[in-house]
Structure formats: structure tokens, C-alpha cells
Amino acid sequence: MNRVKLNKTHRLLSPVKGRFLLAEPFAVDLYFSRSVVLLMDAGPGGCMGLVLNKRVNRDIAPFLSKFGLADMPVFRGGPVEQERLFYVHDVPDVQGAVQIGVDLYVGGSLREVVECYKASSRAYHLKFFLGYAGWTGGQLEDEIERESWVVCEQGMDIWGDGGEMWQEALLALDDLYYNMWLNCPFDPQFN
Known about the structure:
- By secondary structure, the chain is an alpha+beta fold.
- The protein is built from five helices and nine strands; from the N terminus they run βββαββββαβαβαα.
- The chain has one domain: VC0467-like, CATH 3.40.1740.
- Helices cover 19% and strands 28% of the residues.
């Protein structure tokens, strides 16, 4: 069966650290349905990212309360190592943090991050995730080729609750093809 390809104005990008993946609208997987993924690492051996817009209903308040953050939301980072906690922040110069984008870091000393987050006159951001999304070498590129994902640059607000993040990211592409994704039903049989 041949698929008709519509003209796209969005420049196709390769998946590299610091870029985002937007899931195609018909992905029905719990983790990836209408998800936005921040790529933390990408290379020939594979890719690793965090799903930014899926909140977890699981309570990890006892752990976060040690840092005075018991009310902080936690997001479902992906299906791999779901017991492992990740955090993304915009606090520079944190010991052990890895820079993944402009003013965007993962990990490092949680105590340092929390101190800056709570005490600084600058409004720093912090977001927690359980698990991560992972792809073996070439797997993500194959999924992008099959149009399961569209890659976009950094520049979106990742700090909110994620409710409208997927829709806002698609609109920011300013591309009629991807804007059509906004009108797709969750289940294609209801189209």
C-alpha cells in the first residue's frame, strides 16, 4: 500500500542530545501516546530520553519530603528502569550535572539543585521523572523514518504540568502537515 506524502515545511532534524521528539497521534502506548520526549543522549549506540508530559500517579512524597519538595509532581520518564529517579533542572554549575541543552541539565548533586531552587532570587526550575525511554542503535532513526516521531529543536517550555505540551509543540512547528495531527482522534476507528 502506498502512502501519500503531504508537503512538509518543517525541516527534518536528526535526533541529537537536547532535541525533542513529538509522538505521532496514533501511538497508543501508555508511555508514548501524544508524548514529548527530551533526548538526554543520542549516538550510534542508541538514544535515551525522558517523557516530559506524563504525570505519575505514584506517590514518592516520602523521598521528596527529605528535600522539602513533597508536593512536587513526578513524571513518567519512560518504560525503562521505572524505579530510577531522574531530574532535569536549569541550575548551572552543579557538581555532576550533565548539560543537555541551553540552560538545561540532568542530574548532579540533588542537594545543590534543591538549595538553589528553594533559596535563589532567580526562579530556577526542577522536574522529576521515574524511568526513561531508551532505543538501541538505529531503532529511533527507523521509528523517525516511519513517521512515529518528529524531531524538533529546544525552545519549548518544559517546566509545566505537561497537559498541553504536545499540542503546543506541534503548533510551534508551524507546519500544516503536523497541525493536522492536532485533529486526529485518539483512536483512529473513531475518525
